[in-house]
């Protein structure tokens, strides 16, 4: 199990994120957005994957994604959205 986890965060996840980063370079027309120049559901999905994951995975996810500047810019854009920031502050405690 631990070997599989290490392989996911060290090899598989960065490989997947690299492909996503490359795709975003073709679909984004503005830094911080995965498609065009406005927030989209895909931005929220990327943020959720990289920043709103299980607490036990957060540090490993951060390390796996640290070199992907477009993905991190998207995560920052979503996290700085006033509605998202308000929800994060007020949402009920949950394992999800």
Can you describe what's shown?
With 96 residues, the chain is an all-alpha fold. It has one domain (2-90). Helix content is 68%, strand content 0%. It has five helices and no strands. The chain has helices at residues 2-27, 41-51, 58-65, 69-79, 82-90. The longest helix is centred in the first third of the chain and has 26 residues, at 2-27. The protein is flat, with a radius of gyration of 14 Å. The chain starts with a helix and ends in a 6-residue tail after the last helix. The mean pLDDT is 95.
* Spans of at least 5 consecutive residues with low confidence: none
Radius of gyration: 14 Å
Helicity, as a percent range: 55-70%
| Tally of individual helices | 5
Bulk shape: flat
In sequence order, what are the helices and strands, one letter per element?
HHHHH
What structural category characterises the helix and strand content?
Answer: mainly alpha
Please tell me the overall pLDDT.
Answer: 95
């Amino acid at each position: 199990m631990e070997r599989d986890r290490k392989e996911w965060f060290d090899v598989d996840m960065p490989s997947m994120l690299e492909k996503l980063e490359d795709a975003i370079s073709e679909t984004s027309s503005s830094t911080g957005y995965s498609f065009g120049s406005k927030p989209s559901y895909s931005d929220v999905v990327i943020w959720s994957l990289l920043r709103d994951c299980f607490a036990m995975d957060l540090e490993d996810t951060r390390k796996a994604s640290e070199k992907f500047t477009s993905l991190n810019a998207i995560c920052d854009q979503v996290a700085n959205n006033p509605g998202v920031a308000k929800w994060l502050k007020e949402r009920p405690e949950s394992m999800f």
